[in-house]
Amino acid sequence: MARKPAVPEGGLLIAVEGCDGSGKSTQIQLLYRYLFRRGLPVHLTSWNSSPAVHPLQRKAKRTRILTPLTFAIVNAADFADRYEREILPRLAMRQIVLCDRYVGTAYARDGARGIDPAWTERLYSFARPANATLFIHAPVEVAAARLLAARHAFGYYEAGLDLGVSDDPLESFKLFQGEVLRRYEEIEPRLGYIRIDATRRLREQQRAVRRCILSLLEGGDGR
Q1: Which fold has domain 12-217?
Q2: What is the mean pLDDT of residues 112-139?
Q3: What are the residues facing 43 on neighbouring strands?
Q4: What pTM, to 2 d.p., does this model score?
Q5: Domain limits, the chain
Q6: Dist. CA 27–CA 93, nearest whole Å
C-alpha cells in the first residue's frame, strides 16, 4: 500500500494468542516494528507487565506460593491495571494497541488449571473485545522444542508443575500446554480467532499477520 492507512475512530485493538513457545511474542514484535516504520500510531503491551502488580507476581512465582485461584486473580489484577492505564487511553487517542496475550490467555490457562470458565469470563467481562485476535497455532511438541532450544528449561508455572501432573518438566509441559491449546481451540470459533499456522516459516507467518492488520485498516474484517 502506497498511502498510510488511517486508524479508525476508537482505535484498533489487536490481540495475539497461543500456547507458550508458539512464537506469538516474536510475531507481535515483528508486527509492531512494521507498523511503527510505516508511521502508524502503535503501542505494544504484554501480559503480566503492570508496574503495580508484576513485581508482586514475580516474587510470588519465585517462592511458588501461587495456587490456581490466586494465580488467576493476580493475572486479572495485572490485566485490569494495564487496561485502565495503558490500553483504553491509547485507544481513545486513536492508536493501534497490540496485545501480546489478551483475555483468551486467561480463559485458556485458568481453564487448564481447573478454574470454572464462567467465573473467568465474568472476571474479564469489562474488557472490550479485540478487533482481531490472531491465534498462533503450534503443536505442543513444536512449542516445547522451541523453548528448550532457546533457554534449555521450562518455567515452573509455564510447565504446569504446580499442578502435580508429572514430576518431569517436559512431560508436565506437554500435558499442561496441551490442555491450554485444547482450551484455545475450544473458544476459537466462538471468539472468531484468526488462525496462523506456526509451523510455517517465520516470514510466511508474518506476511499472513500483516495481511490481517492491513485488511482491518482498510475497513475489512482481517481475514
Answers
A1: Rossmann fold (3.40.50)
A2: 96
A3: 97
A4: 0.91
A5: 12-217
A6: 24
